[in-house]
């Protein structure tokens, strides 16, 4: 899934980026409020990690602007451990969760995964379709109980489609959610990844909706 990290401390931002990337997230970073507002308003993110103490525009104002623009992506705010009022203000402004500094990276990963699942209407980290079982937290896929090896991009495409069961997902949307902002995006690669997934998981697993995109039907 695609995440925006908004943090003005470059070392902490890059540490979060490395950890989340290692867990299969696509991660963009913004280092001040103006950049964060622009990126959140022009790119599609599955979740945002938002520090409140930002230069140019503070994080609370950025969050309020997003919500006023009807942007509904889940947001985790980062707050100082001792500042209860920051947590309350952030939640009242439309944040979905908060994490107090300093925090463990494992907790951040778990909270983000939970937020993304809930936003997609999934209570569990495990999604099944027929004999295909996807474990988002463990980044594993099995078919009829047998482990299936996927590349990182194949897993990202499959995860997004399975988190949106029954919905038609366009190639443009898949591109937005599997590549970082500064990556050279080629829409033709989506067809390649879908083709590989069909070979590994069955030709009928992913349906092509002509002119619109791809869909995995619900059981």
Give a written overview of the molecule.
By secondary structure, this protein is an alpha/beta fold. It is 42% helix and 21% strand. It is built from 8 helices and 11 strands. It has helices spanning 10-22, 33-42, 59-68, 84-92, 105-119, 152-163, 171-178, 188-201; strands at residues 2-6, 26-30, 47-51, 75-80, 97-101, 126-129, 132-135, 140-143, 146-147, 207-209, 213-215. The strands form 3 sheets. Strands 2-1-3-4-5 form a 5-stranded parallel β-sheet, with helices on both faces. Strands 6-7-8-9 form a 4-stranded antiparallel β-sheet, with helices on one face. It is elongated and about 50 Å long.
Total helical elements: 8
**Between the first and last Cα atoms, what is the distance in angstroms?**
23 Å
Mean pLDDT: 88
| Rg, nearest Å | 18 Å
Element pattern in H and E:
EHEHEHEHEHEEEEHHHEE
Query: Biggest sheet, strands in spatial order?
Result: 2-1-3-4-5
Broad shape: elongated
Helix content, binned percent: 40-55%
List low-pLDDT spans.
none
Number of strands: 11
Structural class: alpha/beta
Q: Main β-sheet: number of strands, strand sense, barrel status?
A: 5 strands, parallel
Write the layout of secondary structure elements.
Layout: E1 2-6, H1 10-22, E2 26-30, H2 33-42, E3 47-51, H3 59-68, E4 75-80, H4 84-92, E5 97-101, H5 105-119, E6 126-129, E7 132-135, E8 140-143, E9 146-147, H6 152-163, H7 171-178, H8 188-201, E10 207-209, E11 213-215
Parallel strand pairs: 1-2, 1-3, 3-4, 4-5
Antiparallel strand pairs: 6-7, 7-8, 8-9, 10-11
């Amino acid at each position: 899934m695609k995440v925006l990290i908004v943090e003005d401390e470059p070392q902490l931002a890059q540490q979060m980026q490395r950890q989340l990337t290692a867990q299969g997230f696509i991660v963009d970073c913004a280092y001040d409020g103006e950049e964060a507002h622009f990126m959140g308003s022009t790119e599609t993110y599955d979740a945002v990690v938002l520090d409140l103490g930002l230069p140019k525009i503070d994080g609370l104002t950025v969050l309020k602007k997003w919500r006023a623009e009807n942007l509904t992506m889940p947001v985790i705010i980062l707050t100082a451990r001792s500042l209860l009022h920051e947590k309350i203000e952030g939640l009242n402004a439309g944040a979905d969760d908060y994490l107090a500094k300093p925090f463990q990276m494992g907790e951040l990963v778990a909270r983000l995964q939970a937020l993304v699942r809930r936003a997609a209407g999934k209570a569990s980290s495990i999604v099944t379709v027929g004999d295909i079982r996807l474990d988002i937290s463990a980044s594993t896929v099995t078919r009829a109980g047998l482990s299936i090896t996927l590349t990182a991009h194949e897993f990202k495409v499959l995860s997004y489609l399975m988190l949106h069961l029954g919905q038609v997902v366009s190639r443009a949307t898949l591109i937005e959610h599997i590549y970082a902002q500064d990556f050279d995006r080629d829409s033709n690669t989506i067809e390649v990844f879908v083709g590989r997934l069909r070979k590994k998981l069955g030709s009928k697993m992913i349906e092509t909706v002509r002119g619109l995109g791809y869909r995995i039907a619900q059981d």
